[in-house]
Amino acid sequence: MKAPIHLISTWKKASVPLLSLFLVFSAQQAFSATLDVAIPQDSLFDVISARAQKLASEEYIAPKNIELDALNNIEYQDYRSIRFKQDKSMWKDEGLYELQLFHPGFLYKTPVTINTVDSDSKLSRLPFSTDFYQYDGTAAPLKDEIAKSIANKQLGHAGFRLHYPINTTEYKDEVMVFQGASYFRVVGPNQVYGLSARGLAIDTAEASGEEFPVFKEFWLVKPQPEQTNIIIFALLDSPSVAGAYKFSIDPTTNTSVKVDMQIFARKDVKKLGVAPLTSMFYHGENSTKFFDDYRPEVHDSDGLLTQSQDNNWIWRPLNNPSQLSVTSFSYENPKGFGLAQRDREFNNYFDIEAHYHNRPSLWIEPEGDWGNGRVELVEIPTDTETNDNIVSYWVPEKPFKAGDSLKLSYKMTTFNAYLTQHDKARAVRTRIGSAALPGEDNPPPKSHRQFTVDFAGPDINKLSEKLNLNADIQLTTGEVRDVTVQKLPDSLGWRVAFKIAPQNGKPVDMRLSLKLHDKEISEVWSYVWYPNDIK
Prior knowledge:
The chain has helices at residues 21-30, 41-56, 69-72, 76-80, 142-149, and strands spanning 10-13, 82-84, 98-102, 113-117, 123-125, 133-135, 159-168, 171-179, 183-186, 196-198, 200-202, 214-221, 230-237, 241-251, 255-265, 272-279, 281-283, 298-299, 303-307, 313-317, 325-332, 336-340, 361-367, 372-379, 390-396, 404-415, 426-434, 449-456, 469-475, 479-487, 494-501, 508-516, 519-520, 524-529. It is mainly β and 535 residues long. It has a 16-stranded mixed β-sheet that branches. Strands 3, 7, 8, 9, 10, 11, 16, 21, 24 and 25 form a ten-stranded antiparallel β-sheet that branches. It has a four-stranded antiparallel β-sheet with strand order 27-28-31-30, with no helix packed on it. Helix 1 packs across helix 2 (41-56). The longest helix has 16 residues, at 41-56. It is globular and about 80 Å long.
């Protein structure tokens, strides 16, 4: 496998590295209708970057929706009844990877263009055909109607998915999927799809509304028969930004995706979100409001994990708040951040369909110097698990203005509960209840809370209960009292219990870590308590 190119992040006025006349000519030819041209793979990212730069210098043109009412108005169940035929998979029986396509329609009304690049660097566009799909049930009459409506036209595709033998050599499971805006999802061995990644987030949680960039065209480099990695290029566009992306996918014990990106600002961006992750948290062990649900917990992720340059770890359990919540963690050149599904016990979900205990965690590891900025966490109230209400991303400190360009690289890796490089004790349970004592005659207000936070790990679990572990608790406002630290039975770790009393109804931002002889031995547990969450 060829080592990936290491790109250092740079801020500058929009300019692509000098391209030869050949590249400029190839860029024009490659994106023509015929695509009868070969472009060296090593140059393809620069060619797409040149096109993105040109797009950003021009007025934005919104993509056109499909002009077929039968697909625009199709119901969810009918859309699900349209399935790609496995025997039509691209590259079938030619190697480790197979490629399948998604039918346009339903929510996916703006088709994308998908090209393949062969070993001779020749580009070929994948046409749409009703022959690729099985139209079952009530969707069956659509086949002839679609075929007749698109005669001599190119409909395009809603996206694509890659199949690879990550669990067994006899079957190729889905390992990655691109579908909708700039969304994509990946899984590792024995995982099922959960949270999503995106190419870019723009103005998330801003009063002016969020902008959703779109991957409008893809180029998939056909792998050699025994090749275990695959490379995908993409062109991104939106009213504010255009950009080029390179994805180097390598499924092994985990699935890793090296992302190289170069984006160009068409206009000023209020908030630029790099390497965004989108997930869902409906309710969990830390929820303080009632959910009429037989399942104890329902979430794709249960916390945000961050790592600083000097190896300080912060764990922030997720919440379904009563109002929009935006939390920031400031860093200089962070080592990583990600959304994790730490709780992987089936008995904590009891869901035999959604398999929340097998949802992937994703870790973003910056490459090069990302400078100053912040990891931002957005939590949005939701009354259903069908809404993705959690977003996290990196916000560079330097504003992204019209005419600017930004080149960044990062590695995204799937994992289960924990990262191997995280060697400190970890917060494994967060539970919240009333601070009142049973039978108390004059109980405190409902906004006063009892917290229990359990820490565990191979090293801390072995410590003697006779040792004096201390809880370092810091609050931005309010008061903390009745702090205790106790070892749990059966090597389950250590529990920190404490009560908080908010002040004047203000949110209480808390940080907690365990110390032994004044040395921090755990990650930092971070949480914000909103007194108004208790009605």
